[in-house]
Amino acid sequence: MAVPDRARRPPPLLLLLLLAGLAHGASAVFVVKDSNGTACIMANFSAHFWTSYETELGSQNASVYLPPSAEVLNSSSCGGNSSDPSLTIAFGRGYSLTLNFTRNATRYQVQVMRFTYNMSDTETFPNASAKGSKSEESITDIRADIDKKYRCVSGTMVHMNDVVILLWDATIQAYLSNSSFSQGETRCRQDIPSPTTAPPAPTTAPPSPTPTAEPTSPSVSRYNVSGANGTCLLASMGLQLNFTYTRKDNMTVIRVLNLNPNHTKAVGSCGPYHVALTLLSEEDFFLTLKFGMNTSASRFFLEGVQLNMTLPDAKDPSFQAANSSLRALQASVGNSYRCNTEERLYVTQAFSLNIFSVWVQAFKVDGDTFGSVEECLLDGNNMLIPIAVGGALAGLVLIVLIAYLIGRKRSHAGYQTI
């Protein structure tokens, strides 16, 4: 999966997904004006697009961000008697995103969203069997009250057959009354906190973190990432998130959350020295695992973990934790790393990742089969424990036996023949 360098990266304190590093860039405001120069549509958001396509090697994934160089096309319109307002944003080599609006007496909405992409762009679609332009569209749940802006900090996913679009930090308004965003806003459901119990009575000392109930072990699922040269990552594992944050009532809480494979979409990217697996959960979080290679030692390892999620009950709803200097899950290139013992990776002070029953291989992968296994030290230590206990017991039995024999010999030596 290729991610062009020209892609726009989201602000660091907002919900985001990074498949090719931690850099970020500024977003742009897209404006549609009528013939008198009066604005009728304004939009400001970041977006990431994924799609699958066919090659001679089978189905592959492709990815592209909405770049800061994107522009509003002249085909955009404020609408009229026989047409509805629409915003069309063009970018890259033949890409465009169109938002078609409709309204009733009290509300307006993005009725249809359409994404057009260029299969002839070899940078994004290397070795694609089909060429030319292709379009996908879908209805959306992006809606707001008349004379209010639509606001959604959280990620909003729009599914269009083979295309998935992620919007975040979105501010959108159509049918403007004064050529600017309204002060009032309609928040998306993802940004609205779920009902909580009343906060406890104030105390003189700061409250200690309150952990949530410990969940069961997460389900183990298999993931793979493929590129132009075939599979570059095989992984089988269960993932559990442990994170700490401060709620709006100033209580510090600890949450433990299992990743549910049935509610998760996996995407990724292949490179000569970096491989990334990103898991997009329907529960409003995005987890990226980035593998690197030590070329001199010919070993791969997990070098980076990044979590981005929305916590509606937190003081800062946009939670982000990242670490790009890890050295975990290591094995020789061509071999696989396996560990049955639960491993905990401390990403930041506020976030750690528990990995269960992991089996992973990056870069040099032969089809969909794991290579020779390199066991983790934790599994080796677990084997040493029963061996050590068994050895100690055997030694104890031997000592008792020797003591018994010596004692018996001495007792015989105490008798004299008459």
Overview in brief:
The protein is mostly beta strands and 418 residues long. The chain is built from 1 helix and 27 strands.
Present the secondary structure layout:
Elements: E1 29-33, E2 39-55, E3 58-65, E4 71-72, E5 86-91, E6 95-103, E7 107-118, E8 133-139, E9 143-145, E10 149-152, E11 156-160, E12 163-174, E13 185-187, E14 210-211, E15 221-227, E16 230-246, E17 252-258, E18 264-270, E19 274-281, E20 285-294, E21 299-310, E22 318-323, E23 328-332, E24 336-339, E25 343-348, E26 351-362, E27 373-375, H1 377-413
Molecular structure report:
This protein is mainly β and 418 residues long. Helix content is 9%, strand content 48%. The strands form 4 sheets. Strands 14, 15, 16, 17, 24, 25, 26 and 27 form an 8-stranded mixed sheet that branches. Strands 1, 2, 3, 10, 11, 12 and 13 form a 7-stranded mixed sheet that branches. Strands 4, 5, 6, 7, 8 and 9 form a 6-stranded antiparallel sheet that branches. Mean pLDDT is 81; it is low at 1-26 and 194-204.
Radius of gyration: 29 Å
Please, what is the average pLDDT? 81
Q: Could you name the ranges where pLDDT drops below 50 across 5 or more consecutive residues?
A: 1-26, 194-204
Largest sheet descriptor: 8 strands, mixed
Secondary-structure element order, as H and E?
EEEEEEEEEEEEEEEEEEEEEEEEEEEH
Say how many strands there are: 27
Oligomer: single chain
The helix fraction, in percent, is under 10%
Number of helices: 1
Strand content: over 45%
Distance between the termini: 98 Å
Shape: elongated
Structural class by SSE content: mainly beta
